[in-house]
Amino acid sequence: MGEKRSRSLIKTVSWRAIAALVTIIVAFVLTGNLIISLSIGSIDTIIKLFVYYFHERGWNKISFGRDD
Hints:
mainly alpha
C-alpha cells in the first residue's frame, strides 16, 4: 500500500520548513546579511519543494524495502 498524495505533500512542506530554517541560518553565518540569507532560503525552498515531492512520489511506486 502506498502513501496518499496528501501525505506526501504534507511531508514535503514540513520537511522543507525545517530545511529552509537550516539553510537560512547557514547562509546568515556565511554572509552576515539577513536579506541575502532569506533570499537564498526562499529560492532553495521553492525549488526543493517540487524536487522532493516528485522524489517521494517516485519512491512510492517502488516496492523495494516494503513489507506490504
